[in-house]
Amino acid sequence: MSEPGAAPAPVPRAGGPLPRARLAFRRWRRTRPFWAALWTGLGGFVILFLPLAPLGKILQIGVGGIAGMAGGVLLMAMALLILFLPSQRHTAGVIAVIAGVASFPLSNLGGLFLGMFLAVLGGAMAFSWLPEKPARRRRGRPAPAREGSAVA
């Protein structure tokens, strides 16, 4: 224990490889529709692996299982496309929404509604995502004063 009134021990700075990697990943993640790809991929995962569940949990066996696996693979491919080619997010988002809605009648009620919901959510997020634009600088002009700020 330290003495009362003594200064706390200095905390070492986090400058190792893990914090740098986390910051690099954060910068990379912010340049693309990361969350849209995550939700689309999770929806595809649920739709893909639900037909592979034990027989007691499967609602439909046969062609529905094959359609579920194909839809799940398609959704997971769209998630990768959204993540690694953000310029193709509109096409991949529309395909993800269509595949998610199509999974409802084709594959165990769309992965028991959860996979369908996640796929539609991710596809819609991918379609609506816009890259962040840098702030524009005005040449030779001062920045406009905000309302309520006093000019010195």
Order of helices and strands: HHHHHH
The major sheet is characterized as: none
Runs in which pLDDT lies below 50 for 5 or more consecutive residues are none
Determine the fraction of residues in helical runs and give it as a percent range.
55-70%
Structural class: mainly alpha
Distance between the termini: 50 Å
Notes on the structure:
With 152 residues, the protein is an all-alpha fold. Helix content is 59%, strand content 0%. It is built from 6 helices and no strands. The chain has helices spanning 17-29, 34-49, 63-84, 89-106, 108-112, 114-128. α2 (34-49) runs antiparallel to α6 (114-128). The longest helix is centred in the middle third of the chain and has 22 residues, at 63-84.
Protein topology:
Layout: H1 17-29, H2 34-49, H3 63-84, H4 89-106, H5 108-112, H6 114-128
Helix pairs in contact: 2-3, 2-6, 3-4, 4-6
Briefly characterize the structure.
The protein is built from six helices and no strands.
Provide key terms for this protein.
single chain, 152 residues, mainly alpha, 6 helices
